[in-house]
Design a protein that fits this description.
The complex is a heterodimer. By secondary structure, chain A is mostly beta strands. Helix content of chain A is about 10%, strand content about 40%. Chain B is an alpha+beta fold. Chain B has a two-stranded antiparallel ribbon with strand order 1-2. The two termini of chain B are about 35 Å apart.
Chain lengths: ~140, ~50
């Protein structure tokens, strides 16, 4: 299963280097069948599959995570975000991403990942840990 | 699923832990990964010839 920094993520990165923009630490998730992730993707899934915590609504909020810099190969080469999102309904999560806005439907996608379905019941949570390594 | 090849970052990963309502934790480990593709032999030769 794949994860990638999308083109909009590059835009966010260079903007942040200039001291502008908003940090992409807001975690969203989605359901449904996924297709090949493309660098040109601007949202989760092949269509609009991003869901709120009830795993049904297509509006609502993402979860603000905690970001740090980590060392993978070279000192501080890794941008890491840890975010725990709790379901208020049952469903299967198949995609997740980080955005620079907490509101679903707003902001820009930084990174997205699709993966084997994670089945959740109401009250279950997923603790996601994203690591993006900016090494040579 | 496959990912379109490009070399924006060296690597990226997503790890996940399920925390059930009763507090039980299920560590799924790495659920998605990207590694920047290494140049093929032909690409390395072309680069070497053009340098």
């Amino acid at each position: 299963m794949a994860i990638l920094l999308v083109d909009a993520g590059l835009d966010i990165t260079t903007n942040r280097v200039k001291g502008a923009g908003t940090e992409p630490l807001n975690a969203g998730w989605g359901t449904g069948t996924q297709t090949t992730a493309l660098r040109t993707d601007t949202g989760l899934g092949p269509t609009t599959v991003e869901r709120d915590v009830d795993l049904v609504a297509t509006t609502g909020s993402r979860t603000a995570g905690t970001s740090t810099r980590q060392t993978t190969n070279t000192t501080n080469d890794t941008y890491q975000v840890v975010a725990t999102r709790t379901a208020t309904g049952a469903g299967a999560v198949t995609v997740a991403g980080l955005f620079d806005n907490v509101t679903i439907g707003s902001g820009n996608l930084y990174t997205k990942a699709d993966f084997a379905a994670i089945n959740l019941a109401s009250g279950d949570s997923i603790q996601f840990t994203w690591k993006v390594v900016y090494d040579n | 699923m496959d990912v379109e090849t490009h070399g924006q970052v060296r690597e990226a990963t997503l790890e996940a832990v399920i925390i059930r309502k009763d507090g039980t934790r299920e560590d799924l480990g790495e659920i998605a990964r990207y590694d920047r593709p290494k140049p093929t032999l032909v690409e390395r030769i072309v680069k070497w010839l053009s340098s």
